[in-house]
Amino acid sequence: MALCRDLWSRNLLALSLLFYFLLTLDVHARPANMSSSKDKSPATKDENEILPPDHLNGLKMEMDGHLNKDFHQEVFLGKEMDDFEEDSEPKQNRKKLIEIFTKVDVNKDRSVSAKEMQHWIVEKTKEHFKEAMEENKNSFRAVDPDGDGYVTWNEYKVKFLASKGFNETEVTDKIKKKEELKLDEETQEVLESLKDRWFQADNPPADQRLDEEEFLSFLHPEHSKGMLRYMVKEIVRDLDQDRDWKLTLSEFISLPVGTVENQQGQDIDDDWVKERKKEFEEVIDSDRDGIVTMNELEEYMDPMNEHNALNEAKQMIAVADENQNHRLELEEILRYSEYFTGSKLMDYARNVHEEF
Question: Is 300 exposed, middle or buried (0-12, 13-18, 19+ CB in 10 A)?
Answer without folding.
Answer: buried
